Amino acid sequence: MKSPIFALALPTLLLSACSGGIIPKGGASAPSTTPAPDVAAKPVPSTPVPPIAAAAATGEILNAASAGLVRGPAIGGLSVDPRKTNLALASFRTSCPGLLKRTDNSGLTQGSDWQDACDAVKTWTGDAISFFATYMDAVQVGEGKAFVTGYFEPEIAGSRTKQPGYDIAIYKRPSDLIDVDLGLFSDELKGKSIRGKVQGTKFIPYDERAAIVDGSLAGRGLEIAWAADPIEFFFLQIQGSGRLRLPDGGVMRIGYESQNGRGYTGIGRLMKDRGLITDGSMQGIVKYLRENPEEGKKIMNENKSFVFFRELTGAGPLGAMGYPVVGEASVAVDPKYVPLGAPVWLSLDRAEPNGVWVAQDTGGAIKGANRFDSFWGAGDRARAIAGGMSARGSALLFLPKAAVARLIPAE
């Protein structure tokens, strides 16, 4: 879902530009339903467990291993919600094939470290927290100070065909959109890439959002569907995937295929800086856009990034590991600090995200140690919680016992 640049930490993505790299990594009537209500869930306060005191890291911090590790408390004694922990165990089971074969960029584990846990989870019948306590130990990365936002799978009114009430084009990737690996031209640019198109003998930036919205791609057969509401579609693009509620009651799921290579601009920060809003949540931003449609269109176009989609079939939405992300179980992480597929325990000043999650996704705005983006599923509840999620507290990773013994030798 977020394997490209958008793994959507909504409050953060709306307020700030994405970081990292050079590419910002028929016959029915008009829609009878209105857009989902733009309301945020009232936060449920909680007192987080404080992070464990840790010595300041020395030298350059490149990943979790260089950020420093502290052994955490016994997993069996951690406070958890059994229902959510069972969801996390199921997601860990799903992630095991990837855990065993992926290169762990955090520097914490090797694929073989996870073998015993992944073998055992296939037939485990006990409670979930006991499984994690049996095969893993908890560690804190760096200072352990967690910041958590939220994302969800939006559902908006859409149609497979253009018809009255459905006239916002949803495009697939254009054939003239080209990715260039700059590392092929200079060792100094390894890991960097750009996206654009060829015009004559020159390589130029691809069309920005305003041009695409005004029809620069029309008539090329790129439309895979049509949305009813431009604001709802704008936010679906930020999320990177979602559901189209079709006129006949069916659902078409779409997912990120590519992006135009233009830099991402968080319109929430832009609007706050101009004094247009004081509430930087998705709900506050949408309220202003709806009340000021002409100005709102101009503001949305200041985010020059535009996302192209493909239709999704089968289970989903899919995270960066290629497996379905699960509401209240999957989190997006920075893979330099958390092995993809590893369990994470959160204790925050907001109760809803507290407990065990599994790292199954990534995102352009999710950078650094103890930075997480919690996935809440689809529907109005998920939208309400994710749209206003901003919580702080502490975080622990669950790693195989053999890996922890290697990383933090017993004194």
Which helices and strands appear, and what pairs or packs with what?
Elements: H1 10-15, H2 64-67, E1 69-71, H3 82-101, H4 115-121, H5 128-135, E2 136-141, E3 145-153, E4 155-159, E5 168-171, E6 178-181, E7 193-199, E8 202-205, H6 209-213, E9 223-227, H7 230-239, E10 241-245, E11 251-259, H8 267-273, H9 282-291, H10 293-301, E12 307-312, E13 330-332, E14 343-348, E15 355-361, E16 371-378, H11 380-387, E17 390-400, H12 401-407
Parallel strand pairs: 3-16, 4-10, 13-15
Antiparallel strand pairs: 1-2, 2-17, 3-17, 4-9, 5-9, 6-7, 7-8, 10-11, 11-12, 13-16, 14-15, 14-17
Helix pairs in contact: 3-5, 9-10
EC number: 4.2.2.n1
GO molecular function, one term: peptidoglycan lytic transglycosylase activity
Signal peptide: 1-17
Secondary-structure element sequence?
HHEHHHEEEEEEEHEHEEHHHEEEEEHEH
Number of domains: 2
Major sheet characteristics = 6 strands, mixed, barrel
Structural class: alpha+beta
- Whole-number mean pLDDT: 89
Q: For this structure, what is the CATH homologous superfamily of the largest domain?
A: RlpA-like domain
Task: Describe it.
Residues 155-310 form the Lytic transglycosylase MltA domain. Residues 1-17 form the signal peptide. 25% of the residues lie in helices and 25% in strands. With 411 residues, the protein is of the alpha+beta class. It has two domains: 10-40 and 170-312, Ribosomal Protein L25, Chain P, CATH 2.40.240.50; 64-150 and 320-407, Barwin-like endoglucanases (Beta Barrel). The strands form three sheets. A six-stranded mixed barrel has the order 3-16-13-15-14-17. A six-stranded mixed sheet has the order 5-9-4-10-11-12. Strands 6-7-8 form a three-stranded antiparallel sheet, with no helix packed on it. A hairpin with a 5-residue loop joins strand 10 and strand 11. Helix 3 (82-101) crosses helix 5 (128-135) and helix 9 packs across helix 10 (293-301). The radius of gyration is 22 Å and the shape is globular. The chain starts with 9 loop residues before the first helix and ends with a helix. Mean pLDDT is 89; it is low at 3-9 and 11-34.
